[in-house]
Amino acid sequence: MQNTFYHQSIIGSLRIDVFEGAVIGIKFEEGTSLDTSTFLQEVCCEIDLYLQGNLTEFSFPIKLFGTPFQLRVWNALLNIPYGQTCTYKDIATKIDCPKGARAVGLANNKNPIMIVVPCHRVIGANGKLTGYAGGIDIKKFLLDIEK
């Protein structure tokens, strides 16, 4: 059974979806919920610590659902070290799809677990910040706390 929880963070309301003891979704969305399980409290605590610059790696389990290509992209995102960035082309090259920068961007846009699967660490080839579901200001905030 999937459970949904809404967490009020310093960057806005986050919807957190949990299935079979793992986080399967985090996205920017307003809402309220009654679920206050210990697991969700720990997830929210880690998110808050990260957003305060006091946590560099999440310890709670996640589970990703997507196409084989999306899973390759999202797993590559998980390997971008804290405090570093790379380009869409870098990710495409890492997953053996060197001409697939645009497809990587589309998969990045479908990332179901914002913040934890760090799509915010992917920047344009020119070094500029490009699209982010939470907006460019939040992407900049996330990158700044990782400096």
Molecular structure report:
This protein is an alpha+beta fold and 147 residues long. It folds into 2 domains: 2-51, no CATH class; 68-145, Winged helix-like DNA-binding domain superfamily/Winged helix DNA-binding domain (Arc Repressor Mutant, subunit A, Orthogonal Bundle), CATH 1.10.10.10. It has 5 helices and 5 strands, in the order E-E-E-H-H-E-H-H-E-H. It has helices at 38-51, 68-78, 88-94, 101-109, 136-145, and strands spanning 2-9, 12-19, 22-28, 86-87, 122-123. The strands form 2 sheets. The chain has a 3-stranded antiparallel sheet with strand order 1-2-3, with helices on one face. Strands 4-5 form a two-stranded parallel sheet. Strand 2 (12-19) and strand 3 (22-28) form a beta hairpin. The radius of gyration is 15 Å and the shape is globular. The mean pLDDT is 95.
Structural class: alpha+beta
Strand content: 15-25%
Oligomer state of the chains in this structure:
single chain
Which segments are poorly predicted (pLDDT under 50) over 5 or more consecutive residues?
none
Fraction in helix: 25-40%
CATH third-tier fold name of the largest domain: Arc Repressor Mutant, subunit A
Secondary structure: number of strands: 5
N- to C-terminal separation?
Answer: 38 Å
Largest sheet: 3 strands, antiparallel
Order of helices and strands: EEEHHEHHEH
Strand adjacency order, main sheet: 1-2-3
Gyration radius from CA atoms, angstroms: 15 Å
The first-level CATH class of the largest domain is given as Mainly Alpha
